[in-house]
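Section 3.1: Structural characterization of target chains.
Under the original work plan, the team committed to producing a structural model for every single-chain target entering the pipeline before any wet-lab resources were allocated. The record below documents one such target. The sequence was received from the expression subgroup and is listed exactly as submitted; it comprises 107 residues.
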Amino acid sequence: MEPTREASTAASPAESGTKFESRNLEFLLDIPLQVSVEVGRSRILVKDLLQMQEGYVIELDKMAGEPLDLYVNNRLIARGEAVVVNDKFGIRLTDVVSPSERLEKLG
């Protein structure tokens, strides 16, 4: 009786590397990120904080009409303008920080 060969179903190293990378990327796509939009900033004294009540106005450092800042996990990612979408606020991106600039700010 002749020995039989089983068909190899294993993927080549190149194929398995691609599948592995794809699975890793899919895993990363499900990581939740904190997204926030900043209208402006201000510094106040503790005594002013304690005196705040309804109607109190805090002056921010940005001028009316300046772009809003979009942060992802506390990193500036883009700037844009406020829009209304289905009775909710949104942001239309007008300037996205390049990936190289984002990497520079990590250091």
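Confidence is low (pLDDT under 50) at residues 2-9.
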